[in-house]
Design goal:
Length: 278
């Protein structure tokens, strides 16, 4: 299987630099006239898939909003993943997993093993048990053309205390995470498969991103207050692999499919301009 980095690179070239999250908040279900139950969840997810699955490069279902409804919600998530694959968008499952290595192995099987019912193109992962503890995910991703997005500087204000803290060798925690990702991506062309998550809200990172050679997922746009113009502040000259991510800002335009598509098109246009891509 072609690597995730190569598949993402092509998807962004063909469809534009945009990831749209499927985050069915109770307030959004209500705004869409849907019930706050499994049926509402299913209709919400299907509507997003039908409107955007053949249009945006990456779709990022947020697992928590599906898990909220127990096994029936997880069944909707599995079905949503399959529908997205059929429509051609890459599926990034937002689960932010992290644990000791032997347990990470099980998470890796759950999401990155092609025979799994939850098999996706990529997952989000938390490095705060040590980036090395995520090795089973990196290995399975490499074996099956998957990707892993590792949290580095998250979009929430509480993240900085931990992520900008200084390690024993003088680097920030975020820089140490970025450096380990860079090692994993070294030599990959056109792009490595291990990404970093850096919120569009974080301002200047103080990090050197020049060697990372992997995708930079940028959530925090729209509902959390960041705009496409902020991407330049955060990423400086390292704009080529930035993958801007919106959830509520785009989803708020639904449930009308045309309105959802128009919101996604606006987001792509804003991001293209900010990232200076034609
Ligand atoms: O990994 C993520 O996607 C993520 C990382 C981060 O630093 N901040 C962040 O907001 N997210 C996720 O991105 C989505 C943001 O949603 P909106 O604020 O509605 O665009 C949510 O699903 C968050 O869980």
């Amino acid at each position: 299987m072609e690597s995730f980095g190569a598949r993402l690179h092509r998807a962004v070239r063909e469809r534009g630099p945009l990831c749209v999250g499927i985050d069915p908040h109770p307030a959004l279900l209500a705004r869409w006239g849907l019930t706050d139950d499994v049926d509402g969840l299913d209709r919400f997810a299907r509507t997003v898939v039908d409107a955007l699955g053949d249009r945006v490069a990456v779709v990022k279902p947020q697992s928590a909003f599906f898990e909220r409804f127990g096994s029936h919600g997880v069944a909707v998530l599995e079905s949503t993943i399959r529908q997205l694959r059929d429509r051609g968008s890459l599926v990034l499952l937002d689960v932010k997993r992290g644990d000791i290595g032997s347990t990470v192995h099980a998470y890796a099987s759950a999401y990155l093993e092609p025979s799994s019912p939850m098999y996706v193109d990529a997952v989000t992962a938390s490095p705060f048990l040590g980036v090395g503890s995520l090795t089973p995910m990196f290995e399975l991703a490499a074996e099956h053309g998957g990707g892993v997005f590792v949290l580095a500087l998250t979009s929430n204000p509480e993240g900085a205390t931990v992520q900008r803290a200084t390690t024993a060798d003088g680097r920030t925690v975020a820089q140490a995470v970025i450096d380990e990702i860079a090692q994993l991506n070294a030599g990959a062309e056109p792009l490595g498969s291990i990404g970093a998550v850096i919120g569009a809200t974080v301002g200047e990172t103080g990090c050197d991103l020049s060697a990372i050679n992997g995708p930079l997922l940028a959530p925090g746009l729209g509902a959390q207050g960041a705009t496409a113009a902020d991407l330049r502040v955060v990423f400086g000259t390292n704009l080529s692999a930035v993958l801007p991510s919106y959830s509520r800002e785009v989803l708020g335009a639904g449930p009308d499919a045309e309105a959802l598509r128009a919101a996604a098109d606006r987001a792509v246009a804003d991001c293209r301009a900010a990232l200076a891509m034609s």
